[in-house]
Amino acid sequence: MKECAFTRRKPQSLLNCTMATSAPTSPTPLSNQRSFGFGDRIGLAGPGHLRALQASGFAPILAQQSVRELDRLGRTAADVMDAAKRAIAREGYTGPWGGDADHLKTVEAAQQYAQAGFTFFTIDPSDHLGAPDRVQSLPEAYADLYLGQSWETASGQYSFDEAGLKEVVSKFEGVLDHCEMMAKGIAAACAGRGFEIEVSVDEAPATTSPLDHLFVALELKRRGVSFASLAPRFVGSFQKGIDYRGDLKTFESDLQQHVDIARQVGPYKLSIHSGSDKFSIYPIIGRLCGEWLHVKTSGTSYLEALRVLCVEEKALFRELLTVAFEHFEQDRHSYELSVTDDDLAQLRQEADNPTEATFLDGVAGRQVLHVTYGSLLSNDKLSSGQTRREAVLAALERHDDLHQQYVERHLKKHLQLLESER
Predict the structure, then answer these.
(1) Would you identify the CATH topology of the domain 35-300+409-418?
(2) Of 258, 215, 253, 250, whose CA–CA distance to 233 is shortest?
(3) Do 294 and 36 touch, CB atoms closer than 8 A?
(4) Domain ranges across the chain
(5) What sign for the dihedral angle of Cα 255, 261, 267, 273?
(6) Which positions are catalytic?
(7) Is the C-alpha dihedral spanning 5, 7, 11, 13 positive or negative?
(8) Residue 232: Cβ-neighbour burial (10 angstroms; 0-12, 13-18, 19+)
(9) Residue 139 carries which DSSP code?
(10) Model's pTM, two decimal places?
(11) Rounded mean pLDDT of 145-150?
């Protein structure tokens, strides 16, 4: 296992850190390396991410933020890139790293990330998914390409009958058209420099079947869309901020089929979205995917920042809990969660004396805080007169050592489990 390159520098404030001349100043494509996305909603977790990475074989995506996160946080792609570079300078990291423009739906958004130096572009075509019965008559071009053919992988042989082919065309033709258009726009925005593309179908309402995956991958390849990774929607439940929910043997069997298709059609990496805190399946993922793996995390690092506030800044944390409860119903709409009305009532009862066990380790507490990040980090004023964002940043600066310790410990657990069976 390779170890990441570091030259540890004297710690300094992340808000005032300048780039070291020996640090890599730009992200690069990481297509041929197993990679791990360290999303950082606040912009201060980078040193902890890099410390967690030491002795790991993963290449880091250090600048990662989705369009949705930027909108809710009032940040720009340049802000995210600058925060990653400050962390690199502070830690003296000299290895390769990437920048992920996550969940892109428009070429205009991709252009903004490209201007900020991002090299990894995740296309989110979920708005273009069609109903399974959209196509009434199978187009002849698809029939000629796929009917009567079979594809052999290590886990079995796959073929399409007319009904099955009509269904995948119904669901994914619009997705593929959009991906093709986006890929051309991304290539134009990155003219003259390297980049890589990920295609995400994980936000579809239904699980991605092996035949779904096979059709999407074959069509992308036929249309000339070069992609480094693909994110299916796997069986089971990948909810934000908590462990996997589902049968582990069923997940392993499903993942093996996706791995084998990716090897046969590509090879390309499988990307695990909503990948944080899925501790029960990390050994399976690491063992089956091997080097052809990308894992995305984001909100879990933000929750470690809130853990610091819960431990060291009780008054501020209580005030933030009030905000979270006020905005939860609005903020939860774009997420799959388990929180019930009874859970919320219990959390409210414990809000005057909040504990890590309830709000940072419990399922309901984690999910309420996870999805209300935009509200908690807004520019609305607190009773102190500071904005919520200012108060959180100032508190984390006061407790920087503890913050980095928590982030390092938590993300190291992710990486170690992913590498535990290799």
Answers:
(1) TIM Barrel (3.20.20)
(2) 258
(3) yes
(4) 35-300+409-418, 314-398
(5) negative
(6) 102, 198
(7) negative
(8) buried
(9) -
(10) 0.93
(11) 98
